[in-house]
Structures are given as C-alpha cells and as structure tokens.
What does this fold into?
Amino acid sequence: MAQEEIFDSDELYRRFPKLYLRPDGTLSPGAFHNTSGTDKMSVELAKLTIPQKTALDNPTFGVASFQAGLARSLNQEVFHDPQHANNAHSTVRGNKTPSISNKLAKAAKILINHHSD
Amino acid sequence: MIFENTSYPIYGNKLYVEEGFDVWAPQIKGERFDLQMKYATFEASSEPLDFDRNIFNVIFEPSIANSVTISIPEFTTYRIGSSFFISPTIQKTIQILDATKIEEDGPRKQAPLLQITLHEDYDKVINRIGKLSTLNYNWDSFGAQQVKKDCIERGTKILLEVIEWMQELRLDIPAPFAVPTPEGRIQFEWKNLHKYLEIIIKQDSPDMEFFASDESPEGEYELEGVLRSLRETKEILYWLSSGAIGSLEMLFAKKAA
It folds into this structure.
C-alpha cells in the first residue's frame, strides 16, 4: 500500500475505550498512551477513513481527533503506516509523558462519544 | 436521619433496615427503643464483589452514649473469590440523632428506613476499580494488558487511606477518576479547580509515578516524579486539596535536593 504524506493540518483519529470518558465529558489522558511495550500510539488518518470505521462500529469505543501538527509539536513522529486491511492506519511515535498525553487529551475533539457506566 | 461513622471508615456501604420480624433494641442514652426489622441488607462497595446480601443475625449493641454499634457477621462469599474490597468483619458506630422513643408498654412504631451512604463519590471509584479488574486482555483493541491484581489492591488501599486522611485532617479531596493503563496499571486522576494530579499505581512496586499541574492565573506549572512514601503521597494530596502553587514548587525542590 502506498504511503501517504501526513501534513501538520491533517486530522488523526484515535480510537479509545469508553472507560476513558470522564463523567464531565472530558477525555482522560489515558486514551493517549503508547501501546504496551512500545513507543508507538496507533491512530488513523482521517482523510482515508471515517470515525465509525475507526471505532470498529463498536459502541464500546469512542473516537477523538487531533491534528498531526500538535503531535509533532510535542516531539512526536507522525507517519502513515498502512497495515493489512487498514489503509488509514498511522503511527504517532515517541515517548508519551503524562504532560504529552494530557496535552493531547485537552486538544482532542471527541467525535464519537459513548459514556462509560 | 443522619448517620455519622465515628470509629471506622465507611467506604460505600449502604445499610437498609426494613420492618420485619427480628427485633433489635438499641439503648440510646439509657432509653429503650424498640424497632422491628426483617433483615439488614448490606451492599458491597464494589459490584463485581457480590456477596450474600441478606445477612441475618445482625447485632445492634449499645456502645457509647447516643450511638449504636452494628456488628455484621463475617461473610466470605465473593463472586470472583477475592476479599480485597471488603474487610471480613465490619463494625460501625452509627449515631442516631433523632430516634423516636417508644414507651415501655406503648405501641411499637415501625423503624424508619435507615440509609447510610458515606463518601458516595469514593464509593463509585472503588466500584469502578472493581469493574476494571474484570477487563480482558486487549480491552483497548491495541493489546492492552489485564489490570494487575496487585495494582487493584493497592489502588483500593490508597483510596481508603485518602478517606481516612480526609476525616483525620478535615480535608476535602475530591474523588479521583480511575482508569487502567495499557500495561495493566491503575491511574488515578484528580481535578480540583485549576489543579490536576495523576498518580499511577505500578505492579510490584510501592513507588507511584505522579504528574501534577497547576493552571492558575499566576501561571502554569507542571511537575512529574515518583512518590516513594506515604508522607510524599500525603504531601501531594494536601497540595491538591489546599496548597498554593508555591508549595508544589517547594515539593519539587525538596525532591530534587
């Protein structure tokens, strides 16, 4: 699959379990941690998908969006990383300190919202 | 009725006393009060840890003046076989402020519905931690680990200690939001006005990572580090509750020294 260039203005979609939604409607920075044992956080390039697909059409997941430029300003590398059956898959690579995760959480816009129990 | 625990921290237990057949007769200030109850329904603070809710033979004993001690027999039935949420034997002192006196030979009056709910916000967090313990591998769709039992136990213990501190120091510390991390840890997130605090409970380590931020009009400040003792944990929670930004800087300076 061809690799797309990701511009700073491009939106990235991040899938998160609904248990990261706080009762006040804000998003926990826990939604922006790296995959366990790696320095990578999986996202999807918005221009190649739709929020419902990012959420896997699963009501236990929500979707938040943020700009690639924000991640880069936080010392993250952002690149298109297509995977088998998911051409929109991209990666935000870099250490996710609590400060960085919090900044991503504050700036992210929640597109699909399923409040936790 | 207003109930106040004076001897044991109650963390989300609700006690319903309804009319019925078993009779208990607490003495308050030397006066005898006759109440009838069918059973006492005792709810756990965490839904996943269910147990026999119909507890019979609940004993109400006069203890100190103007109070009744309720001894609830030991129970050991837990859905997932763990007792780390509930102490096996729970004893509470409940102060009844406006009980109705019954005349010795007079008609029996039905007991009003007694409901004790203390620290309700913390109840919900403890309940939530219980639910987090049931998450399966890959709960986040990105390969997240199951939450470690060690983290659940220590996380719960921390919350119980916070409740005690609040009572002891008369502090008001809002209940945190609890989330799991991909590594199977528990992360507590507190917000108090312009202050924010994260504490991560790690497995196999008494140390806790923390992140604190303060976005007051005077400026923004962030601090990350490790809490290595109960004293340090209390200090940072005190800052969350009432400290000024200066106190967080001083805490940082002390840690850096």
